[in-house]
Amino acid sequence: MSEPLRPDMFDELCPSSMLPFRFGDKWAALILRCLEEGPRRYSELRVPLRRVTPKVMTRSLRALERDGLVSRTVYEGLPRRVEYGLTPLGRSMLEPLDAACAWAAEHWEELLDAREAYGNGGTPRQ
Amino acid sequence: MSEPLRPDMFDELCPSSMLPFRFGDKWAALILRCLEEGPRRYSELRVPLRRVTPKVMTRSLRALERDGLVSRTVYEGLPRRVEYGLTPLGRSMLEPLDAACAWAAEHWEELLDAREAYGNGGTPRQ
DNA sequence: CAGAATCCAGAAGGATACTG
DNA sequence: CAGTATCCTTCTGGATTCTG
Protein backbone atom coordinates (compact mmCIF):
# COMPACT_ATOMS: atom_id res chain seq x y z
CA MET A 1 0.00 0.00 0.00
CA SER A 2 2.57 2.58 1.02
CA GLU A 3 6.25 2.54 0.27
CA PRO A 4 8.89 2.43 2.99
CA LEU A 5 9.89 5.74 4.49
CA ARG A 6 13.20 7.01 3.21
CA PRO A 7 15.78 7.24 5.97
CA ASP A 8 16.90 10.64 4.72
CA MET A 9 13.36 11.95 4.58
CA PHE A 10 14.16 14.82 6.91
CA ASP A 11 17.86 15.22 6.40
CA GLU A 12 17.54 18.15 4.07
CA LEU A 13 14.15 19.39 5.09
CA CYS A 14 15.00 19.45 8.76
CA PRO A 15 15.67 23.15 9.22
CA SER A 16 12.03 22.93 10.20
CA SER A 17 13.19 23.79 13.69
CA MET A 18 14.13 27.23 12.40
CA LEU A 19 10.65 28.02 11.17
CA PRO A 20 8.61 30.59 13.05
CA PHE A 21 5.76 28.15 13.69
CA ARG A 22 5.26 24.75 15.15
CA PHE A 23 2.55 22.15 15.03
CA GLY A 24 2.45 20.28 18.29
CA ASP A 25 5.82 19.62 19.81
CA LYS A 26 9.16 19.53 18.09
CA TRP A 27 8.54 16.34 16.11
CA ALA A 28 4.76 16.23 15.71
CA ALA A 29 4.63 17.74 12.25
CA LEU A 30 7.26 15.31 10.96
CA ILE A 31 5.27 12.42 12.36
CA LEU A 32 2.11 13.64 10.65
CA ARG A 33 4.04 13.76 7.38
CA CYS A 34 5.20 10.18 7.85
CA LEU A 35 1.61 9.03 8.29
CA GLU A 36 0.28 10.87 5.28
CA GLU A 37 0.27 7.85 2.98
CA GLY A 38 -1.05 5.35 5.46
CA PRO A 39 -0.48 3.77 8.88
CA ARG A 40 3.07 3.06 9.99
CA ARG A 41 4.63 0.89 12.61
CA TYR A 42 6.59 2.37 15.47
CA SER A 43 9.84 1.03 14.06
CA GLU A 44 9.03 2.38 10.61
CA LEU A 45 8.66 5.85 12.07
CA ARG A 46 11.97 5.49 13.81
CA VAL A 47 13.78 5.24 10.50
CA PRO A 48 13.40 8.81 9.24
CA LEU A 49 13.15 9.98 12.86
CA ARG A 50 16.21 8.13 14.03
CA ARG A 51 17.52 11.22 15.77
CA VAL A 52 14.56 11.23 18.11
CA THR A 53 14.97 9.08 21.17
CA PRO A 54 12.25 6.48 21.78
CA LYS A 55 11.04 8.21 24.92
CA VAL A 56 10.51 11.49 23.15
CA MET A 57 8.92 9.90 20.11
CA THR A 58 6.52 7.97 22.27
CA ARG A 59 5.60 11.13 24.10
CA SER A 60 4.95 12.92 20.81
CA LEU A 61 2.80 10.07 19.61
CA ARG A 62 0.85 9.99 22.87
CA ALA A 63 0.18 13.71 22.63
CA LEU A 64 -1.07 13.32 19.08
CA GLU A 65 -3.23 10.43 20.20
CA ARG A 66 -4.57 12.42 23.11
CA ASP A 67 -5.60 15.20 20.77
CA GLY A 68 -7.37 12.72 18.51
CA LEU A 69 -5.04 13.36 15.60
CA VAL A 70 -3.46 9.93 15.51
CA SER A 71 -4.80 6.48 16.31
CA ARG A 72 -2.82 3.68 17.89
CA THR A 73 -3.57 0.04 17.12
CA VAL A 74 -1.91 -2.91 18.81
CA TYR A 75 -1.69 -6.26 17.05
CA GLU A 76 -0.73 -8.87 19.63
CA GLY A 77 1.68 -11.63 18.68
CA LEU A 78 5.38 -12.15 18.65
CA PRO A 79 7.00 -9.93 17.72
CA ARG A 80 4.56 -7.28 18.76
CA ARG A 81 3.18 -4.86 16.24
CA VAL A 82 1.86 -1.36 16.88
CA GLU A 83 0.54 0.81 14.12
CA TYR A 84 -0.06 4.53 14.13
CA GLY A 85 -2.35 6.19 11.64
CA LEU A 86 -4.02 9.51 10.98
CA THR A 87 -7.57 9.95 12.21
CA PRO A 88 -9.92 12.05 10.08
CA LEU A 89 -9.18 14.91 12.44
CA GLY A 90 -5.46 14.35 12.01
CA ARG A 91 -5.80 14.28 8.28
CA SER A 92 -7.79 17.50 8.36
CA MET A 93 -4.88 19.16 10.09
CA LEU A 94 -2.64 18.51 7.11
CA GLU A 95 -4.43 21.42 5.50
CA PRO A 96 -3.19 24.19 7.80
CA LEU A 97 0.12 22.37 7.99
CA ASP A 98 0.42 22.49 4.22
CA ALA A 99 -0.44 26.17 4.27
CA ALA A 100 2.36 26.77 6.75
CA CYS A 101 4.83 24.70 4.75
CA ALA A 102 3.90 26.51 1.55
CA TRP A 103 4.54 29.80 3.29
CA ALA A 104 7.90 28.54 4.50
CA ALA A 105 8.91 27.35 1.05
CA GLU A 106 7.96 30.65 -0.48
CA HIS A 107 9.54 32.91 2.12
CA TRP A 108 12.47 30.85 3.31
CA GLU A 109 15.03 33.16 1.74
CA GLU A 110 13.45 36.30 3.14
CA LEU A 111 13.48 34.72 6.54
CA LEU A 112 17.16 33.85 6.33
CA ASP A 113 17.99 37.30 5.01
CA ALA A 114 16.11 38.95 7.83
CA ARG A 115 18.04 36.97 10.41
CA GLU A 116 21.29 37.64 8.66
CA ALA A 117 20.55 41.35 8.57
CA TYR A 118 19.49 41.46 12.19
CA GLY A 119 23.00 40.90 13.39
CA ASN A 120 23.68 37.42 14.60
CA GLY A 121 23.32 35.27 11.53
CA GLY A 122 20.19 33.44 12.47
CA THR A 123 21.00 31.22 15.38
CA PRO A 124 19.01 28.04 14.96
CA ARG A 125 16.80 27.19 17.89
CA GLN A 126 18.00 23.58 17.39
CA MET B 1 -6.64 55.13 11.25
CA SER B 2 -7.13 52.10 13.49
CA GLU B 3 -9.33 51.87 16.53
CA PRO B 4 -7.94 51.21 19.99
CA LEU B 5 -7.39 47.60 20.91
CA ARG B 6 -10.06 46.21 23.20
CA PRO B 7 -8.66 45.23 26.59
CA ASP B 8 -10.64 42.00 26.54
CA MET B 9 -9.44 41.14 23.05
CA PHE B 10 -8.01 37.81 24.20
CA ASP B 11 -10.03 37.11 27.29
CA GLU B 12 -12.35 34.70 25.57
CA LEU B 13 -10.20 33.68 22.68
CA CYS B 14 -7.25 32.83 24.85
CA PRO B 15 -7.53 29.05 24.96
CA SER B 16 -5.09 29.53 22.10
CA SER B 17 -2.52 27.94 24.38
CA MET B 18 -4.45 24.69 24.13
CA LEU B 19 -4.20 24.53 20.36
CA PRO B 20 -1.96 21.91 18.79
CA PHE B 21 0.08 24.52 16.91
CA ARG B 22 2.01 27.64 17.67
CA PHE B 23 3.31 30.52 15.63
CA GLY B 24 6.50 31.79 17.14
CA ASP B 25 6.54 31.80 20.90
CA LYS B 26 3.62 31.82 23.27
CA TRP B 27 2.45 35.34 22.47
CA ALA B 28 3.67 35.95 18.93
CA ALA B 29 0.42 35.07 17.18
CA LEU B 30 -1.54 37.39 19.47
CA ILE B 31 0.87 40.20 18.72
CA LEU B 32 0.50 39.67 14.99
CA ARG B 33 -3.26 39.89 15.42
CA CYS B 34 -2.91 43.17 17.26
CA LEU B 35 -0.89 44.63 14.39
CA GLU B 36 -3.27 43.50 11.69
CA GLU B 37 -5.00 46.84 11.31
CA GLY B 38 -1.92 49.01 11.52
CA PRO B 39 1.10 49.91 13.63
CA ARG B 40 0.72 50.04 17.39
CA ARG B 41 2.71 51.50 20.21
CA TYR B 42 4.29 49.35 22.86
CA SER B 43 1.83 50.56 25.45
CA GLU B 44 -1.10 49.92 23.15
CA LEU B 45 -0.06 46.31 22.79
CA ARG B 46 0.20 46.00 26.53
CA VAL B 47 -3.51 46.61 26.91
CA PRO B 48 -4.89 43.37 25.47
CA LEU B 49 -1.66 41.62 26.46
CA ARG B 50 -1.66 42.91 30.00
CA ARG B 51 -1.01 39.42 31.36
CA VAL B 52 2.35 39.33 29.62
CA THR B 53 5.19 40.87 31.56
CA PRO B 54 7.15 43.61 29.79
CA LYS B 55 10.30 41.51 29.64
CA VAL B 56 8.55 38.65 27.90
CA MET B 57 6.65 40.90 25.52
CA THR B 58 9.81 42.70 24.54
CA ARG B 59 11.48 39.38 23.88
CA SER B 60 8.58 38.27 21.68
CA LEU B 61 8.72 41.52 19.75
CA ARG B 62 12.48 41.24 19.30
CA ALA B 63 12.12 37.71 17.95
CA LEU B 64 9.47 38.86 15.49
CA GLU B 65 11.70 41.73 14.47
CA ARG B 66 14.66 39.41 14.04
CA ASP B 67 12.65 37.22 11.72
CA GLY B 68 11.63 40.24 9.68
CA LEU B 69 7.96 39.86 10.52
CA VAL B 70 7.63 43.06 12.51
CA SER B 71 9.30 46.43 12.21
CA ARG B 72 10.22 48.70 15.08
CA THR B 73 10.26 52.45 14.72
CA VAL B 74 11.43 54.87 17.38
CA TYR B 75 10.14 58.44 17.47
CA GLU B 76 12.34 60.43 19.81
CA GLY B 77 10.81 63.04 22.05
CA LEU B 78 9.29 63.19 25.46
CA PRO B 79 7.52 61.00 26.17
CA ARG B 80 9.19 58.49 23.93
CA ARG B 81 7.23 56.69 21.28
CA VAL B 82 7.96 53.31 19.75
CA GLU B 83 5.76 51.78 17.12
CA TYR B 84 5.59 48.21 15.95
CA GLY B 85 4.10 47.27 12.62
CA LEU B 86 3.82 44.33 10.28
CA THR B 87 6.35 44.07 7.50
CA PRO B 88 5.16 42.66 4.17
CA LEU B 89 6.66 39.34 5.27
CA GLY B 90 4.79 39.54 8.55
CA ARG B 91 1.57 40.32 6.78
CA SER B 92 2.09 37.39 4.47
CA MET B 93 2.26 35.13 7.47
CA LEU B 94 -1.28 36.04 8.45
CA GLU B 95 -2.33 33.68 5.69
CA PRO B 96 -1.08 30.42 7.23
CA LEU B 97 -2.08 31.80 10.60
CA ASP B 98 -5.61 32.31 9.38
CA ALA B 99 -5.64 28.79 7.97
CA ALA B 100 -4.63 27.44 11.36
CA CYS B 101 -7.23 29.55 13.17
CA ALA B 102 -9.93 28.45 10.77
CA TRP B 103 -9.00 24.84 11.43
CA ALA B 104 -9.16 25.47 15.15
CA ALA B 105 -12.56 27.12 14.93
CA GLU B 106 -13.92 24.27 12.89
CA HIS B 107 -12.48 21.43 14.95
CA TRP B 108 -12.39 22.89 18.41
CA GLU B 109 -15.13 20.62 19.71
CA GLU B 110 -13.56 17.50 18.28
CA LEU B 111 -10.32 18.44 19.92
CA LEU B 112 -11.95 18.91 23.30
CA ASP B 113 -13.89 15.67 22.93
CA ALA B 114 -10.73 13.76 22.06
CA ARG B 115 -8.98 15.05 25.15
CA GLU B 116 -11.97 14.33 27.29
CA ALA B 117 -12.16 10.80 25.95
CA TYR B 118 -8.48 10.17 26.37
CA GLY B 119 -8.76 10.06 30.14
CA ASN B 120 -7.58 13.18 31.85
CA GLY B 121 -9.98 15.86 30.72
CA GLY B 122 -7.59 17.81 28.58
CA THR B 123 -5.06 19.37 30.85
CA PRO B 124 -4.31 22.82 29.50
CA ARG B 125 -0.67 23.44 28.84
CA GLN B 126 -1.23 26.90 30.42
C1' DC C 1 9.36 -5.08 18.84
C1' DA C 2 7.76 -1.26 21.30
C1' DG C 3 8.42 0.83 24.61
C1' DA C 4 9.44 2.45 30.11
C1' DA C 5 12.67 4.36 33.85
C1' DT C 6 15.97 7.52 35.38
C1' DC C 7 18.73 11.42 35.25
C1' DC C 8 20.02 15.74 33.35
C1' DA C 9 20.76 20.32 30.70
C1' DG C 10 18.88 24.15 28.53
C1' DA C 11 15.11 27.02 27.15
C1' DA C 12 10.89 29.32 28.02
C1' DG C 13 8.07 31.84 30.79
C1' DG C 14 6.96 34.58 34.92
C1' DA C 15 7.41 37.78 39.39
C1' DT C 16 9.30 41.71 41.03
C1' DA C 17 11.87 45.77 41.08
C1' DC C 18 14.34 49.38 38.78
C1' DT C 19 15.80 53.05 34.80
C1' DG C 20 17.11 56.40 30.65
C1' DC D 1 7.00 55.71 27.93
C1' DA D 2 9.42 51.77 26.85
C1' DG D 3 11.80 49.11 28.35
C1' DT D 4 16.16 46.36 31.74
C1' DA D 5 17.89 43.54 35.40
C1' DT D 6 17.57 39.61 38.60
C1' DC D 7 15.94 35.71 40.25
C1' DC D 8 13.27 31.70 40.02
C1' DT D 9 10.14 27.75 38.40
C1' DT D 10 8.50 24.88 34.88
C1' DC D 11 8.60 22.68 30.63
C1' DT D 12 11.07 20.35 26.76
C1' DG D 13 14.01 17.53 24.87
C1' DG D 14 17.85 14.35 25.13
C1' DA D 15 21.27 10.47 26.86
C1' DT D 16 21.46 6.20 28.66
C1' DT D 17 19.94 1.97 30.33
C1' DC D 18 16.57 -1.60 30.93
C1' DT D 19 12.10 -4.75 29.99
C1' DG D 20 7.40 -7.37 28.91
From TrEMBL, chains A, B:
InterPro entries: HTH_HxlR, WH-like_DNA-bd_sf, WH_DNA-bd_sf. It comes from the Bacteria. The keyword Transcription regulation applies. Keywords: DNA-binding, Transcription, Transcription regulation. It holds the Pfam family HxlR. Residues 14-112 form the HTH hxlR-type domain. Signal peptide: none annotated. PROSITE patterns: HTH_HXLR. The keyword DNA-binding applies. PANTHER family: TRANSCRIPTIONAL REGULATOR, MARR FAMILY, TRANSCRIPTIONAL REGULATORY PROTEIN. This is HTH hxlR-type domain-containing protein. The lineage of its organism: Bacteria, Bacillati, Actinomycetota, Actinomycetes, Kitasatosporales.
